[in-house]
Structures are given as C-alpha cells and as structure tokens.
Amino acid sequence: GEGIVCLGCSYTEGIGLPIEYNWGYKLAKALNTKHFNLGQAGLGLDSAYRLLLGFGSKLKFKKVFLLVPPPFRYEWIVADNKLVEPYLIEKPDLIQWLVQSMGSNKHIKPKYEKFFKSFLYGGEMNDSLRESRGVHAIRGLCDELGVEFFYKHYHLTRIEKENLKEGIPARDGHPCSAQQELYFNSFLKMVNENKIMVSFTCNEI
Questions:
Q1: What are the distances in angstroms from CA 134 to CA 18, 81, 128, 178?
Q2: What is the pTM of this model?
Q3: What is the model's pLDDT at position 96?
Q4: 143: buried, middle or exposed (CB in 10 Å: 19+, 13-18, 0-12)?
Q5: Does residue 7 contact residue 39 with C-beta atoms inside 8 Å?
Q6: Is the dihedral of CA 101, 14, 43, 147 positive or negative?
C-alpha cells in the first residue's frame, strides 16, 4: 500500500523509545497512511540519498520527510576501491563508514587517522556546503519521483529548546518522547500549510 517515507539517522529510526513515540510513526498515523521508516543509526545524507534511490521504485509514496542528520557523516563504498584499502585495518564486504558522529576511527590505521579526520571534517563551512548539497540532491530525486519533499534539521533552535517539555528519556542521549513529538508536530504543520521546503542556516544550528 501507499505510505510516507521517512529518512534520517537514529533520531528517525527512533532508537531508545517504543515505536509509538517515533515521529514518523506518529506522522503516518495522523495522515492515516503507512509508515516506511528508512532511518538508520549512524548514517548521514549520503546514506539517505542512497536508500531513497534504492527504494524509490519499490515503495508507493507521495511524500518524503527528511530529518537532516549531522553533515559530517560520510559514506564510503570500498568494495571496488583498491586505492583506499591499504589505509584500512580491514576491508569490509559492502560499506565502510570512516567517520560517524563521535569521530570513530576504529577502521582506519592509526598513522592515517589525522589525514582522514582533517580531510573529512574539513571545517564548518565545508560541512554546511555538503549539507546543502545533500539536501538538495534528495529534493531533486523527489522531484524526479514526482513526490513532495519536507525536511527539518535534527538540531533544535533556541526557541524550540526553551519550549521543549520534559518527556520519557531515550538511551544514549537520543531524543526523548517530547523531542520526537516536536519533530512530529513540525512536519505535520508543514503538510497542513503545504510548506514543501523549510530552510535553515548555520546560525540556527
């Protein structure tokens, strides 16, 4: 059947809380449709684009919702990349994440750690440009698929933080039930107001 597609990281996957509190689940219920949650912990915009590209022809949907993950999460596919292999401790069969939210370097040989981190992180301006490029790439894919695209950054604005109520906590610092409710209400408002795109700036994050 037809549903909505939700993209993002662990905040979208809903780690640490029952599914009833998940923003995508709540949104699908409010819209009286199915819920296709493609959010996965530790992933970034590269992964969100790849997943939508892969599932775009396999699912029935008219709306895509992206909770934008951290911009410094890169996805490297090394199965056919012989150039990068010598720098890794081991070669995974499919996909290698060199950097995630905590700057994990467990798969990079120690003597190359500084180079990889400096190259991948790059700085705030580089991250912002990559983030904008990733979001707009997903938007372009949605245009090709003929579906509506809505997005919001996972970071809360100052006003959102001030008005955030206490909720049921999730593990490892993931969004509590109140923060999931905030994401849900934000996306539902966009749908009701037919607001396809919501811009954000570095000052807001």
A1: 29, 22, 10, 28
A2: 0.83
A3: 42
A4: exposed
A5: yes
A6: negative
